[in-house]
Amino acid sequence: MTTLFEPGVESVDYDVVKVLRERTGEVLQQRRRTIEANGRQLSEGDLRALALDIIADELQALSSERINSGQVPLSLEEEERLTTAVAAALHGAGRIQPWLENPDVENIDANGFDNVFVSFADGSQEKVGPIAESDEDMIEMIRVLAATSGLSSRPFDSNNTQLDLRLPDGSRLSAVMAVSNRPSLSVRRKRLRVARLSELRANGTVTPEIEAFLTAAVRARLNIMIAGEVNSGKTTLLQAIANEISPRERLITIERSLELDLHELKELHPNVMALEERLANAEGQGYVSMASLVRRSLRSNPQRVIVGEVLGDEVVAMLNAMSQGNDGSLSTVHANSSEDVFQKLSTYAIQAEERLPIHASQLLIANALKLVVFVNRDEDPVTGLQRRRVTSIREVSGYADERVTSSEIYGLDENDNVVPNAPMTDRTRQRLERQGFVVGDYDFPGRW
After folding, report:
1. Interatomic CA distance for residues 207 and 439, integer angstroms
2. From CA 310, how far away is CA 348, in angstroms rounded?
3. What value does the mean pLDDT take over residues 425-446?
4. Cβ–Cβ contacts within 10 Å for residue 426, how many?
5. Which of 132, 277, 330, 426: disulfide with 113, CB 3.0–4.6 Å?
6. Which domains does the chain have, with CATH numbers?
7. Which secondary structure element, helix H or strand E, spans residue 65, and what is its range?
């Protein structure tokens, strides 16, 4: 018997879970086909309810088998734990599902099925029990998730060794196999369902002035690029800024795997078209790139285009979209500083299908972008815990000597506070003032 032991979690016999999942899955598919053949379409809720009924039948049959063989039948507590585990295996994320349901969990990293680490919101990390029976079972678990999450099924095999997808709860899963010594996965939890700038101000990510500045900037329809290192909070900040957009505007979001969820926030954004990159199937067909989705979005009457993350050749299409009338567009990019963004975007543009030379890419960036917002993740010197802060805002002022010209209008002072650092251009200042923002009208806390 293989069991999972965690603090506060009762043991579960996963050999039994595996058998029950196979039995339940077969019966569920048979009943689903029968019901749909009679003209009734089952919703996701219907399928989950039907699965629970089948699990109950299978558990009753298992208890009968045990009684007939002279064994002790399942207790009520065992049945409850098995029901939860089988349901998670069918519709959730298997053995990582309990961690996904823990509100304090921030990240889950597995280097093989039995070398698993969980990071918590307070910055602590723990090594936990196995998430599968073997590396092969872990790969199978990932394949099940890839087949049932996102807008389309995504292959995960020796020909498709990398996988990125959005789990049903909004968390982002990244997995690799074959190119690593063992199959590995990383899950980044989506802890804020609806991010607002006011929440980020309350938790110290932005100061009151930066909150007011970003609110005015998005309403003034300035094109904004959010930059930062891995896991610095770029996507959360992007969603918070996007949630200041008027509900009267039509938005188109473009992502590798859906995680912004603006299309699900009907009260804030009733008119959203969400597009997701589609990978090629096993025959190498059906691939739809981010770049093609950006170009397609321009034919769908967007008032703003939001690109979840720039990682490649979509950069040229995105910058063209920003400079051709879709003012107020937003995106994110990995970078080490606000100034590093321009070189990073140029590098992507050089590698794109258009093969833009450096001076052409810099000119395109200068014409498209207005603001770069840098969010940093570091350690609080007092508490020792991880913190995320907007530490730099850079305004693009033009193009000269074949380079983007810019100035850091907000940055860190000698006391580690974010303060006005340089004057912005008159045009930007006037556009922000029309939205009610005036530099220096906000109090800065001594430490936050």
Report:
1. 13
2. 9
3. 79
4. 8
5. 132
6. 1-91 (no CATH), 102-191 (3.30.450.370), 197-433 (3.40.50.300)
7. helix 44-68
Half-sphere CA count of 277, side-chain side, radius 13 A: 21
∠438-439-440 over CA atoms, to 5°?
A: 115
CB-based contact 356:362 (threshold 8 Å):
no
Cβ-defined contacts of 28-31 (< 8 Å, 24+): 28/54, 28/90
Strand-pair partners of 48: none
pTM higher than 0.85, yes or no? no
The strands making up 418-420's β-sheet, listed across from edge to edge, are: 272-276, 251-255, 304-310, 330-334, 224-228, 371-379, 386-400, 403-412, 418-420
Question: What's the CA gap between 304 and 249, in Å, rounded?
Answer: 8
**Closest residue by Cα to residue 330 from 221, 225, 213, 246:** 225
Please tell me the predicted confidence (pLDDT) of residue 44.
61
Quick one: how far is CA 427 from the chain centroid?
34
**189-229 pLDDT per residue, tens:** 865 457 899 999 998 899 999 999 999 999 999 999 999 98
Count of beta carbons in the 10 Å neighbourhood of residue 20: 23
The structure tokens listed for 98 are 């309990």
For residue 16, pLDDT over 50 is answered with yes
In the numeric block, which tokens belong to residue 387? 């913190």
Asked whether residue 355 carries a pLDDT value surpassing 70, the answer given is: yes
